[in-house]
Amino acid sequence: MTQKLIPDIVIGRLPVYLRALTRMLSQGRQVTSSQELGERLGISAAQIRKDLSQFGEFGKQGTGYDIEFLTKKIQEILKVNRVWDVAVIGAGDVGHALANYGGFHQRGFRVTQIYDNDPEKIGTDFNNIRVMDIQEMKKSIKKAGIKVAMLTVPAEVAQDTVNDLVEAGIEAILNYAPVNLNVPQNVRVQYIDPAVHLQNMTYYLD
What we know:
single chain; Arc Repressor Mutant, subunit A; Rossmann fold; three-stranded antiparallel β-sheet
């Protein structure tokens, strides 16, 4: 079964399962069930079984899932059984926070490059990573073979920046800029806009 046949919504739930399983492992747990996972995550047990069955048989009826085994399998599916180098574009407050976030490495990611166009930030260190001039971005990212970027630049320059990232070989972008981006079909973009998520929730408030 090829990756393209798996619905995006299923892929989107796998990291949620992985996070729950990793937490169970840290608690010394060895076995779980789709019922328990469902109760923890607010997802039906049937949905979890259906999602996992897209990739094979990972548990046995009556005995449940071996947590360590299932964790490793989902890591393999998501390709986070390795560490991906990541470039952060924009050394403002969000970029600074991302560079200093300690949770990426244990989940398969490592910030190795940071770029900005502010002369006062270029040459400074963020968590022992030197901020580089954004003019060097295409050449340096291409040379390093980086495939993943986190974009924290202003909306008005986001599209031009993304065009350069695509030319540099970036194939996965986590976008914090409050704007939709146009990218080739082979480039994946995830949007992180806190205001949008807040607006989604305030609809339900009295």
